[in-house]
Structures are given as C-alpha cells and as structure tokens.
C-alpha cells in the first residue's frame, strides 16, 4: 500500500515514515498543502495522512482540495488540537478519521488498517486464496500449515497482488502502490521480487499460482482442482500415446 504523509515537522515525518516503511507501506512525504495536492493529483495513493497545522493551505483546506479533485482515498488527519469543533471541522472537510497528537504509533497503524478495511475499498483484514492465507494485521503469510517468511517489500507486493487476485496487474500499477516516488521505472526490481515470491510460495494443484503475462503484467490466481485434474489427465494421455509401442 502506498501512502502520502503530509507533515511539516521533519522529526515527526521521519519517525512516522520510517515506522510505516517497516510495516511494508510505501511512503511519500511532503510538508505543505500545495505539494500534497500536487502529489495526490499525479499519484494513486491508498491513504493520505494529513497534519492539520501545515504551511500555506492548512489541513482542512487541503482535505477539501483533495475531495474537489475527485479523489476518494481515505484521509486520516493528525492534529495537536483536541477541541471537538476542530474534529468536526476535519470530518466535514472530507476526512475519514482523526488522530490527536501525541499518539501511539500502534494506534496509527490500527486506524490505517481500519480505513483500508472499509467496504468502499473492499479491503478485508484476512485474505484467503485457496490454501494461501495473509493476515494483514500481523503481516504474516501461511500456505496450509506452513509459515512463509517474507521481507517487508515481498509482503507488500504479495498483499497487493492478493487484493487483486485473478486480475492481471501491470508494472505501472504495482510501482504506484508498492513502491514510492523514488522507484526507477527502468529497473528490474519488480521482476526480482516476483521471482522471489514465486520461489517462496511454491506451486501445487489447487493453490495460488503467481503467473507472468508477457507484455501485460502479473496475476495471482487459484487453479481449480478440476482444471488441475484435467491438465494431469491430458498430460497422462499424452505420455501414454508417446510410450505406446507400435504393432509389429
């Protein structure tokens, strides 16, 4: 998931961005409302974390600007103001949630997970694909009873593919949601991580298979037992034909 953090306090921005990156989020950071609106207009973010007290356009005005652009991603507002009127102003400006500073980082993560689970985005907390299970809260992955150890970026890529299972996802879309703005579109990083995931996931009948669609992108799909059985039957028939000895 790719987030935009709008925070002018560099110390807080570094702390929050580093913590989010350790939790497999890709994070872009800006320090004012104008830059935030520019980034939102050119990038497809999954969540915006928006401080109220920023230079130029404040958080309320920036949030209204985001909605005026037609962007519907969740917006989580951060503020040192704890007055009820300020919280109401933030929600009326189009924010989805409000977090008062200072806050525990664990609560920030929990609120992000809650926002991403909202029906509008169809983001379940637990993703099940055949025998593959992703727990987005603990960021753990299992295949059957076997736990699969993934790096933060491997997990982020797998989660995005799993949330878009049975659909071909292109390189550009992956880069926009799994990497931040420093990603080099000419690098082969995506291919490297896809190959790592493919090795770690393994392949077996009736289980999710990570496929490459040449010229289009990648798809995480579940081969049905019926398809697998048909494939095996066809292969067995072919083997039998080739192994049959000719009559004398």
Would you kindly provide a written description of the structure presented here, covering whatever features stand out?
This protein is α/β, with parallel strands linked by helices. The chain folds into two domains: 2-121, Rossmann fold (3-Layer(aba) Sandwich), CATH 3.40.50; 126-225, Winged helix-like DNA-binding domain superfamily/Winged helix DNA-binding domain (Arc Repressor Mutant, subunit A). Helices cover 43% and strands 21% of the residues. The protein has helices at residues 10-22, 33-42, 59-68, 84-92, 105-116, 152-163, 171-178, 189-201, 225-243; strands spanning 2-6, 26-30, 47-51, 75-79, 97-100, 126-129, 132-135, 140-143, 146-148, 208-213, 217-222. Strands 2-1-3-4-5 form a five-stranded parallel beta sheet, with helices on both faces. A four-stranded antiparallel beta sheet has the order 6-7-8-9, covered by helices on one side. Helix 2 packs parallel to helix 3 (59-68) and helix 6 packs across helix 8. The protein is elongated, with a radius of gyration of 22 Å. 29% of the residues are buried. The model is unreliable at 225-248 (pLDDT under 50).
Brief summary of the model shown:
This protein is α/β, with parallel strands linked by helices. It is built from nine helices and eleven strands. It folds into two domains: 2-121, Rossmann fold (3-Layer(aba) Sandwich); 126-225, Winged helix-like DNA-binding domain superfamily/Winged helix DNA-binding domain (Arc Repressor Mutant, subunit A).
């Amino acid at each position: 998931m790719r987030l935009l953090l709008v925070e002018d306090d560099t110390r807080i921005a570094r702390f929050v961005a580093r913590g989010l990156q350790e939790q497999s989020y890709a994070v872009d950071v800006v320090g004012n409302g104008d830059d935030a609106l520019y980034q939102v207009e050119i990038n497809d973010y999954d969540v915006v974390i928006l401080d109220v007290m920023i230079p130029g356009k404040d958080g309320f005005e920036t949030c209204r600007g985001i909605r005026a652009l037609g962007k519907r991603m969740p917006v989580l507002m951060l503020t040192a103001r704890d007055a009820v009127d300020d919280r109401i102003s933030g929600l009326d400006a189009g924010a989805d949630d409000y977090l008062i500073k200072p806050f525990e980082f664990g609560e920030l993560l929990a609120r992000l997970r809650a926002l991403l689970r909202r029906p509008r985005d169809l983001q379940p907390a637990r993703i099940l694909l055949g025998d593959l299970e992703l727990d987005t809260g603990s960021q753990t992955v299992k295949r059957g009873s076997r736990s699969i150890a993934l790096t933060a970026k491997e997990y982020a890529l797998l989660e995005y593919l799993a949330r878009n299972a049975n659909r071909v996802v292109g390189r550009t879309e992956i880069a926009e949601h799994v990497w931040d703005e420093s990603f080099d579109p000419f690098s082969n990083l995506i291919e490297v991580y896809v190959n790592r995931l493919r090795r770690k996931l393994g392949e077996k009948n009736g289980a999710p298979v990570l496929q490459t669609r040449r010229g289009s992108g990648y798809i995480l799909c579940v081969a049905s037992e019926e398809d697998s059985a048909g494939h095996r039957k066809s292969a067995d028939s072919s083997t039998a034909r080739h192994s049959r000895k000719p009559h004398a």
